[in-house]
Design a protein that fits this description.
Layout lengths: L1 H16 L19 E11 L7 E12 L6 E4 L5 E6 L2 E2 L2 E4 L4 E4 L8 E11 L3 E2 L6 E7 L8 E5 L19 E10 L3 E4 L2 E8 L2 E12 L6 E4 L1 E5 L3 E3 L2 E10 L4 H4 L5 H12 L6 E2 L1 E4 L12 E4 L5 H9 L16 H17 L5 H10 L18 H18 L1 H15 L6 H12 L1 H12 L5
Parallel strand pairs: 1-12, 19-20, 21-22
Antiparallel strand pairs: 1-2, 2-8, 3-7, 4-5, 4-8, 6-7, 9-10, 10-11, 11-16, 12-15, 13-16, 14-15, 17-19, 18-19
The structure holds arginine (ARG) and zinc ion.
Length: about 450
């Protein structure tokens, strides 16, 4: 019985998992990503000679597959000057296009064929204006001050990766990453995944990281700076051992480092609710600019002001919701933000706190107005409805079906959707098949009703 249920779930995942080609062009960002292009792996080699300045050199090799006939390969890119473009080792012509910003590689691909595209570029990165916040997305430069050496890092969600690397910049095309970072000796460099090696040549060293679970381009972590590496005890969950390291700018005071010590307990709590943690390592990197926190894969990017258990929990939850289970379209960000926000309540309850204040706070965030959960403009992507209404929708579902069924539902969702671009309809389908029509109706009301149910 159990075996055949698993079988059915697997079959369902295969049927609905679908190819990401069907979800592009994106309803809100029609310029992002090339329909029919599937990047399997990115090998990135970044050289940062003067940390804290926006100058870099980057060589990107994308291993890609054409899912349909492609006349040209079109990568999203608005970064520094391109020096060379090669396909499978041979130089090919290219053009740059301004709107939407693309690197057009004049090389045709037959359906089902693979190619390795290598692009070398160097120069100053300017970044991309965020749709709602007064911040620039992409490669960040934190100039040195009298008390702190310079730093750089990636802050890419939603479409900042293309500010410094040519990518198929859409979450519906997650990929694995190998990242080589060359920086001056004495400067730390960390990225998503596992550190493979660290080699010194003269005044620089090159650190290589490998991430073997596919994630969206915006979720790649890259950090360069003067960082204290704090190695923590491995985290043990049933059947898993997860290595854990946090990184702090040397100036970070002890009280801001303290909340990160709870990460292991939080991860155990969340994996109990969500299912196995999708990667083999985790940690946080603290950064000094006043940005939002970002759930970069295996290594969350945590501004100093976000150094609180609630935000640590939120970004950790995104490792399942957003990183392992990628969005199929930008209009579905509530699938990321609603689950990550709901995790804050799960952690509060695990500490025997009353969840009511959180529920009240979420409702309060929506008194000024709310919207159906599927976003219809880029301004909706990270608004209160995505976070607070999304979380309340999940709470309504849990209250109706009970904790055991809710937990089983979350486990099935993360297991069957991992690596598959996922849309709200996929969640509703699973609610219907696993929890029944009444539960699916409840969720549908939260998704579609203009007012708060
Ligand atoms: N996903 C991030 C978080 O809630 C928020 C990113 C906000 N990005 C932006 N461009 N406004 O954890
Ligand atoms: Zn979030």
């Amino acid at each position: 019985m159990l075996r055949s249920a698993r079988h059915l779930a697997l079959l369902l995942a295969l049927l609905t998992g679908g190819s990401h080609a069907t979800s592009l062009p994106d309803p809100l960002y029609p310029g992002l990503g090339q329909p029919g292009l599937d990047v399997l792996h990115y090998d990135l080699a970044l050289t940062v000679p003067r940390p804290g300045t926006p100058w870099l050199q980057v060589t990107t090799t994308a291993t890609l597959r054409a899912e349909q006939a492609l006349d040209t390969v079109q990568l999203d890119y608005s970064g520094p000057d391109i020096l060379t473009v090669q396909v499978d080792g041979a130089t090919v012509p290219y053009t740059r296009q301004a709107a939407p910003p693309k690197l057009v590689i004049h090389h045709a691909l037959r359906p089902g064929t693979e190619a390795r595209v290598t692009v070398t570029a160097a120069g100053t990165v300017t970044g991309i204006q965020d749709a709602t916040l007064p911040l620039r997305l992409g490669w960040q430069s934190v100039p040195a001050t009298s008390t702190q050496p310079g730093a750089n890092f990636a802050f890419n969600e939603p479409d900042g990766a293309r500010s410094f690397v040519p990518v198929n910049d859409h979450p519906a095309d997650p990929a694995t990453f190998t990242t080589h970072l060359t920086v001056p000796v004495g400067v730390s460099a960390v990225a998503s995944g596992t550190r493979l090696d660290d080699r010194t040549q003269g005044a620089t060293h090159t650190v290589t990281y490998d991430l073997t679970v596919p994630v969206p381009t915006y979720a790649l972590a890259i950090h360069v700076g003067t960082l204290d590496e704090v190695r923590r005890p491995a985290i043990h969950t049933p059947g898993q051992t997860i290595s854990w390291t946090d990184y702090f700018p040397t100036s970070t005071p002890a009280d801001l480092r303290a909340p990160y010590a709870r990460t292991g307990d939080i991860l155990r709590t969340l994996s109990d609710w969500f299912g196995p943690y999708p990667f083999t390592s985790y940690g946080s990197v603290v950064v000094t600019p006043a940005l939002p926190a970002l759930e970069t894969a295996t290594l969350s990017t945590m501004p100093v002001r976000s150094s609180r258990e609630r935000v640590i929990t939120h970004e950790l939850a995104h490792q399942w919701f957003g990183n392992a289970v990628p969005l199929g379209a930008w209009s579905d960000t509530w699938l990321n933000e609603g689950f990550a926000t709901y995790a804050e309540l799960l952690w509060a309850q695990a500490k025997s706190q009353d969840p009511q204040p959180l529920l009240d706070a979420w409702r309060a965030r929506l008194t000024g107005g709310t919207r159906p959960l599927i976003a219809t403009s880029p301004a909706h992507l990270f608004d209160d409805s995505a976070y607070a209404r999304g979380a309340l929708a999940l709470h309504a579902l849990r209250t109706q079906v009970g904790d055991a069924a809710f937990r089983a539902f979350l486990h099935t969702y993360t297991r069957t959707r991992q690596g598959h671009p996922t849309r709200t309809a996929d969640l509703l389908d699973l609610a219907r098949t696993q929890l029944g029509l009444r539960a699916a109706d409840t969720l549908t009301r939260w998704v579609t009703q203009p007012d708060l149910p």
